Amino acid sequence: MTLPQEPRFVRRESFEVVGIEERTPHPEKSFPGLWEVFGERQDDILHREDLDVAYGLCIMGGKKEGSGNEHEDFTTFVGAEVSNASDIPEGMVTRALPAADYAVFLHKGAFFPDGLPKTYDYIYREWFPKSVYKPSDNYNFEHYDRRFCGVDNPNTIIEIWVPVKKEVA
Fold it and tell me: Does residue 117 have a cis peptide bond before it, meaning omega lies within 30 degrees of 0?
């Protein structure tokens, strides 16, 4: 696994995704099952923007006082971008992501046992504290395209998009 370098910055307009989601205190345990169901049901999604692209979205929930956890619960989502979210398949949901400025990090390498967690640690525990940016919202998403070769493949590349804003001094 290669730790990410400096991110690139992208302004992205709002967009909609359709897929499946689950609330959980442990997103790392939720995503594998969601990806499996998505793989079986992705052809049900109409109006897909790009058949070669999928998204893993993590929305951080609230924190309970004294819990010791940074976030108490998460909503995990796996889906695809659509041009029209009016025809949502049964059992799926739509999420609208707002226009935002994003820091886009590359994750290169196998996800496990600790590849992807190390990338997230780098982003949130190393890069953000040293940068002039802070997260501007309570979510991030992983962008999967043709560079994704599987979670165990050392050649896999995905993008991690985090909405950001500059801190005011």
Answer: no
Q: Is residue 141 part of a domain?
A: yes
CATH number at residue 45: 3.20.80.10
Mean pLDDT of all residues in 88-92: 96
**Nearest-angstrom CA–CA distance, 19 and 109:** 25
Q: Say if residues 63 and 25 touch (Cβ distance below 8 Å).
A: no
d(CA 97, CA 141) in angstroms, rounded, equals: 10
- What length is written for the chain? 169
| Total domains, the chain | 1
Burial class, 168, CB count within 10 angstroms (exposed 0-12 / middle 13-18 / buried 19+): exposed
DSSP string, 46-109: -SBS-TT-EEEEEEE----TT---S-S-EEEEEEEEES--SSPPTT-EEEEEPPEEEEEEEEES
- The whole model's pTM is what? 0.90
Q: Average pLDDT of 64-71?
A: 48
